[in-house]
Amino acid sequence: IIDDNPIEHHQPNHPFSSDIKLVLGDDIQLNFNGLSGSIKGELAIIDEPGKPTIGNGELTLKNGQFALMGQNLKMDEARLNFVNSPIENPYIQARVTRQVTVTTSSDLATEQEFDRRYLGNQAPLMNNQQATVGVTISGETAQPEIKLFAQPPSIAQSDILSLLLLNRPIAQATNADAQLLVQAISALHFNATDGAQITQQLQQTFGLDEIGLITQTRYVPNKDDPTKEDTTTNPALVLKKSLSPKLLLSFTTGFMSGSNILNLRYQLSNKWAWQTQTDGNTNSMDILYTIERG
Fold first, then answer.
1. Pick from 68-82, 113-127, 131-145, 253-267: least confident
2. In this predicted structure, what is the pLDDT of residue 255?
3. Over 90: is that where the pLDDT of 124 sits?
C-alpha cells in the first residue's frame, strides 16, 4: 500500500515535567578534573518545561584531594548547596590546606626582616617554623570568591601561595617558579586587591618593575596550504626590568608554546626609541616613532 500523505505526529498536550530525588550513599567516589574523594548527600532535581532545571539539597565531599598546579592538596571540607539553585550553579564552600615546615637560611631571614621594616611587608618566616597554608572557596560556582589564608596569620599572601604550590617561601623561589606562581594567580581568579598584592610582592622578590600575563599571538604555516598562515594564541609570562631611566629589558615566555623572546628597548627621546628582539632563531632591530593623538 502506497500512501502519499505524510504521517502526522501529534505533540502531547501536557509537556513532560520531572521531580527526581537523588540519594548518594557512602560508596560513591568522585574523580573529576583534579578533584577526588567520596561524595554523599541528597539532591532533589526539578525540571519543568520552559524553566531552568533547579536543585534543592546538599552534597558533601569527604577525604577529598585536589590537584592544583601539579600539587595534590588535602581538601578539609567541600559542600555544594542547592537552594532553588540552577543545577549548574550551586553555592560552593570548600577549604584546601597544606601543612609545611619552613626552612630558611640566615641570609634569607635577614632579607625578609629588611623587607618587613623598610618595604612594609608582613612578618618574616622563621627557620623550622610550622605553618598551615590554604585556600578557601565560597560563593556561586560560576564566580566564586577565592582567598588565601595561613596559620600563623602574619604570613604574607605571596608566601602562602609559594608554600602551597612550591613547599618553600617566595624568597627561595627561582625565576622558573615565577611562571608557575603568576599562572596560578591567573587560574585562581583572585579579586583585584589580593591579586595586585601578590603580584607586587612577586615583583619585589624578583627585583622586577613589572610581572604579568599576556596573550601571545604566533603565526604558523597552514597544514593544507604552506603558502598561507594560521594564527594561534597562548598565554605568556612577561617580566620587565628597567636597567636605566631610558633602557628597558623584557623577557616573554609562552606557557604552552615554549617560545622565549628577549626584548631590549632604548628611549632615544620622547618620541623616538630603538628596539632589538630575539627569540633564539630570529633577530630583529627597529627604530620606533610614537605619535600621540587626542
1. 113-127
2. 59
3. no
Is residue 134 a contact partner of residue 95, using CB atoms and an 8 Å limit? yes
- The C-alpha atoms of residue 186 and residue 189 are separated, in whole angstroms, by 6
Specify the amino acid at residue 127: N
Classify residue 116 by burial, with Cβ atoms within 10 Å: 0-12, 13-18, 19+.
middle
pLDDT at 44 over 50: yes
Residue 12 has pLDDT above 90, yes or no: no
Burial class of residue 107 in the structure, from the number of CB atoms within 10 Å of its CB (0-12 exposed, 13-18 middle, 19+ buried): exposed
Sign for the pseudo-dihedral over CA of 80, 93, 60, 62: positive
Rounded CA gap, 291 and 210, in Å? 24
Phi, psi values for residue 7, rounded to 5°: -80, 130
How confident is the model at residue 115, as a pLDDT? 45
Exposure b/e, 246-285, CB count within 10 A at least 16 = b: eebbbebbbbeeebebebebebeeeeebeeebeeeeeeee
Burial 174-212, CB ≥16 within 10 A → b, else e: eeebbbbbbbbbeebebeeebbebbbebbbbbbebeebb
Predicted confidence at residue 122, as pLDDT, reads 52
**Of the listed ranges 17-21, 38-42, 61-65, 189-193, the one predicted with least confidence:** 189-193
Question: Using alpha carbons only, how large is the chain's radius of gyration in Å?
Answer: 27
Name the residue among 167, 194, 169 with its Cα closest to residue 72: 167
Q: Is 165 helix (H, G, I), strand (E, B) or coil?
A: helix
**pLDDT above 80 for 269:** yes
Please check whether residue 241 is in contact with residue 252, taking contact to mean a CB–CB distance below 8 angstroms.
no
Which DSSP category does 172 fall into?
G
Among 185, 201, 202, 168, smallest CA distance to 68 is for: 185
